[in-house]
């Protein structure tokens, strides 16, 4: 945000749109990347391809700064908008999606761990190896947090990470020849959903048999199986056995005949969609953290006495609140379940409601602080001076960052617990990526929400809440709008969750009499952060 608004002099909403799209892609792409890794490239090749993308993206971002290509393009080398030409714009808009691609594959799913497991031939990384990885990561993070904010030239600030990632990619590429034990892609369970829809569409005019035992199912006891349910009967057509063709021939064509289990897996995911839809607005609220919160932060006083504190410190507090709430909410829900104070399914739904309330508190706090900030701006005559620092300490923003981090941490943990036992076993490791993907849709929708709210706010000849600069805008009113909309979203979620739970209970009572025994044999799970600060889902047997 700071680079786009201070150097490129973009409008606040334009800069926020670019940042929101960037982070939306960052959360949305892992689902596609994991599918490609499991069906086409494999984890090692995927990691290598997107490491190149990440390095090249940072290189293009560095080249988009005015001084780097000034002698080639003939533009001036100062950090001013008139020194930015067409070449720099092309480089910037190319760099952002490439960086998002690279960041997503390296941090949103356990690609590193899969490659390391292949490399170590099943040998577990010892305590010293894990401690060394943790130490190196934290030292590098500490240097970046404390060092980079004091570097003024943007070309150097972007250039240092670009050089480091290029060196790491070259070092990683040296393993191409020695890395012989690359596991072949084994396929993705996401393909099952596509096959079920294709098979059901190909038998659109077939009648569904009244007896579900007439539908196709492989009776191999070693295969994962789910009993038939009466919901979404139209998808049962994918399991209809055609009487005019030999069964063996139909079994070989998986795009025409699917197992009942595969159909039920698809049904289970479809039944989750109404609840997932209520989580989209959570992404809209979360988007203000790395757009408008950061815009406020970059123009407030960063000093404590004579000491200048890096603004990224508040981002560090946000991450810490996020990580601590992941651990706390998981332990709290386990405690409720073990003490039988509340069943896990109801405790997790309550946790989602609590997370949404934290989002409301964050928006209300942000609105109050922004109203105070605007008062200071008017008092010191800074309304038309967007480049001036507002004489108000940046630590006024700390509560809203902490609340937003707590909201995100609690939300992701409780959503996983809410859906875990109802999701098909092959899909359980996809849940963290599904949750992040739904949130990313909300982040992308935040661009639309700003446009719609801005248009509504200027009705009747009134001033649009979103102006060119931060000091002329009324972000406090936007935060209040998000707060009451999240209140409405809580009501919608409660209705959707009750419908979902009642529907699932009814299906289990009527059709899945033996399913509860299978649930008891399902693996336990923990939901934690890895050393990169990203969500991991661990599935273990007792």
Spans of 5+ residues with little confidence (pLDDT < 50)? 511-542
- Please give the count of helices: 19
Task: State the distance separating the first and last CA atoms.
Answer: 47 Å
Q: How are the strands ordered across the major sheet? A: 1-4
What would the principal axes of the Cα set say about the shape? Answer: globular
**What is the H-and-E element order?**
HHHHHHHHHHHHHEEEHHEHHHHEE
Round the Cα radius of gyration to an integer and report it: 26 Å
Q: Tell me the β content.
A: under 5%
Question: Could you describe the largest sheet, including whether it forms a barrel?
Answer: 2 strands, parallel
* Fraction of residues in helix: 55-70%
Count the beta strands. Answer: 6
Oligomeric description of these chains: single chain
Category by helix and strand content: mainly alpha
Q: What is the residue-mean pLDDT, rounded to a whole number?
A: 78
């Amino acid at each position: 945000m700071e680079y786009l608004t201070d150097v490129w002099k973009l409008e606040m909403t334009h800069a926020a749109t670019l940042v929101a799209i960037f982070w939306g892609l960052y959360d949305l792409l892992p689902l596609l990347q994991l599918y490609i890794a499991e069906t086409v490239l494999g984890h090692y090749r995927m990691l290598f391809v997107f490491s190149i993308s990440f390095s090249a993206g940072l290189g293009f971002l560095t080249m988009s700064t005015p001084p780097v290509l000034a002698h080639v393009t003939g533009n001036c080398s100062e950090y001013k908008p008139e020194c930015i030409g067409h070449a720099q714009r092309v480089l910037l808009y190319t760099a952002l999606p490439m960086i998002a691609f690279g960041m997503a594959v390296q941090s949103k799913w356990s690609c590193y761990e899969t490659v390391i497991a292949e490399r170590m031939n099943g040998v577990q990384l010892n305590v010293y190896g894990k401690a060394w990885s943790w130490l190196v990561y934290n030292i590098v993070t500490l240097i970046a947090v404390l060092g980079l904010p004091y570097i003024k030239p943007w070309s150097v600030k972007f250039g240092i990470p670009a050089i480091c990632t290029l060196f790491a990619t070259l070092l990683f590429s040296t393993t191409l020849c020695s890395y012989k034990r690359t596991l072949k892609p084994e396929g993705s369970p996401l393909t099952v959903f596509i096959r079920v829809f294709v098979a059901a569409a190909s038998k659109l005019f077939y009648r569904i048999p009244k007896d579900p035992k007439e539908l196709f199912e492989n009776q191999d006891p070693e295969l994962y199986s789910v009993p038939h349910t009466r919901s979404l009967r139209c998808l049962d057509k994918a399991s209809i056995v055609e009487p005019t063709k030999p069964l063996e021939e139909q079994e070989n064509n998986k795009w025409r005949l699917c197992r009942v289990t595969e159909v039920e897996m698809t049904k289970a995911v479809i039944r989750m969609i109404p609840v997932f839809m209520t989580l989209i607005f959570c992404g809209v609220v979360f988007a203000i953290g790395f757009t408008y919160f950061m815009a406020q932060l970059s123009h407030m006083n960063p000093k404590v006495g004579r000491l200048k504190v890096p603004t990224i410190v508040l981002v560090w507090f946000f991450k810490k609140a996020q990580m601590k709430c992941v651990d706390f909410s998981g332990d709290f829900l386990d405690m409720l379940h073990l003490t039988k104070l509340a069943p896990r399914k109801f405790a997790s739904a309550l946790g989602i409601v609590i997370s949404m309330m934290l989002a409301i508190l964050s928006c209300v706090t942000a609105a109050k602080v922004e109203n105070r900030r605007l008062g200071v701006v008017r008092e010191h005559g800074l309304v038309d001076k967007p480049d001036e620092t507002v004489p108000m300490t940046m630590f006024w923003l700390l509560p809203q960052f902490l609340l937003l981090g707590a909201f995100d941490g609690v939300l992701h943990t409780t959503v996983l617990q809410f859906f875990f036992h109802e999701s098909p076993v092959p899909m359980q490791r996809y849940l963290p990526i599904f949750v992040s993907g739904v949130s990313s849709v909300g982040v992308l929708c935040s661009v639309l929400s700003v446009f719609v709210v801005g248009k509504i706010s200027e009705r009747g000849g009134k001033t649009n809440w979103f102006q060119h600069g931060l000091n002329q805008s009324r972000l406090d009113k936007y935060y209040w709008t998000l707060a009451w909309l999240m209140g409405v979203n809580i009501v919608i979620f409660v209705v959707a969750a009750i419908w979902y739970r009642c529907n699932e209970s009814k299906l289990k009572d009527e059709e899945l009499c033996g399913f509860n025994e299978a649930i008891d044999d399902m693996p336990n799970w923990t939901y934690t952060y890895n050393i990169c600060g990203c969500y991991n889902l661990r599935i273990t047997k007792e």
